[in-house]
Amino acid sequence: MFDNLSDRLEKSFKLLKGQGKITEINVAETLKDIRRALLDADVNFKIAKKFTDDVKVKALGQDVLSAVKPGQMMVKIVKDELAELMGGTFADIKLENKPAVILMSGLQGSGKTTFSGKLANMLKSKKGRHPLLVACDVYRPAAIDQLKVLGEQIKVPVYTEEGNLDPVKIAKAAIQHAKANGNDVVIVDTAGRLAVDEQMMNEISAVKKAINPDEILFVVDSMTGQDAVNTAKEFNDRLDFDGVVLTKLDGDTRGGAALSIRAVVEKPIKFVGTGEKVDALDVFHPDRMADRILG
Ligand code: GDP
């Protein structure tokens, strides 16, 4: 196994001790190490380069070498900068309206339906809300059944219209249903496809226009690495979403997609999925993700 970044930097700085302040030349090797760690974590190349350039400017201004553990100080600079780039602090979702309407977007298999159930469960058990789940994936009966099963499991009602192939009508009717039945959050699960296509984008744009959601969340599988960034960009260009949900972080991905997506679409990551079970959901902590990316 390789040393972690902290150990590697400690070693490279040991060789430099006694040379006084950090200079362009003696920091080059260190920055290469940092860039390698980012690339290993699947951070997009351009973003890794810009990041290390920014860190260089910060480090050059500081007397890192005179620190007792210069490597650790450098790691701290890098971690703080990474966390800052990924959002600094936790970004909440907008729930003021009654009902608050949340629209899910993302590719098929990204974890939209699972996340819809997790979010409903979290809002119900931790915030005392009364969510309604809405099945708008009209093409896949299995997806509707999956949401129904989830709803039963967490004891949250699920709105479906068997045989109706118009997601706009279903979504609008679901909001009326929520108003009539005291549901104060409406979570709309939509159809995804295996790749971005025009029909899917038109459909979800039409749903957005019809129901004017308080929050549009883009759900993405963190294991998809660089592809995640392109997908995020395409969805954001069309939907101007409010936040990102990174799923499957229980896998062995280092989570570089978090940094890349944030840098490319400039939207906060709000939640992370950490398993298949309905309670495997966390709010996003930029500092923890920075630790994970750097290894
Ligand atoms: P959708 O097509 O976007 O609605 O995706 P699904 O919610 O059906 O999820 C696709 C698959 O990913 C299912 O087998 C889920 O159990 C699984 N899944 C979703 N979220 C997570 C997660 O955070 N971790 C793991 N390990 N699996 C997940």
TrEMBL record:
The chain holds residues 1 to 295 of 446 of the full protein. Its EC number is 3.6.5.4. GTP binds at residues 106-113, 189-193, 247-250. Part of the signal recognition particle protein translocation system, which is composed of SRP and FtsY. One of its GO terms (molecular function) is GTP binding. It is an enzyme of class 3 (hydrolase). The gene is ffh. It catalyses: GTP + H2O = GDP + phosphate + H(+). It is found in: Cytoplasm. One of its GO terms (cellular component) is signal recognition particle. Belongs to the GTP-binding SRP family. SRP54 subfamily. Composed of three domains: the N-terminal N domain, which is responsible for interactions with the ribosome, the central G domain, which binds GTP, and the C-terminal M domain, which binds the RNA and the signal sequence of the RNC. GO terms for biological process: SRP-dependent cotranslational protein targeting to membrane. Involved in targeting and insertion of nascent membrane proteins into the cytoplasmic membrane. Binds to the hydrophobic signal sequence of the ribosome-nascent chain (RNC) as it emerges from the ribosomes. The SRP-RNC complex is then targeted to the cytoplasmic membrane where it interacts with the SRP receptor FtsY. Residues 268-281 form the SRP54-type proteins GTP-binding domain. The lineage of its organism: Bacteria, Pseudomonadati, Bacteroidota, Bacteroidia, Marinilabiliales. Keywords: Cytoplasm, GTP-binding, Hydrolase, Nucleotide-binding, Ribonucleoprotein, RNA-binding, Signal recognition particle. Its main location: cytoplasm. This is Signal recognition particle protein. It comes from Draconibacterium sediminis.
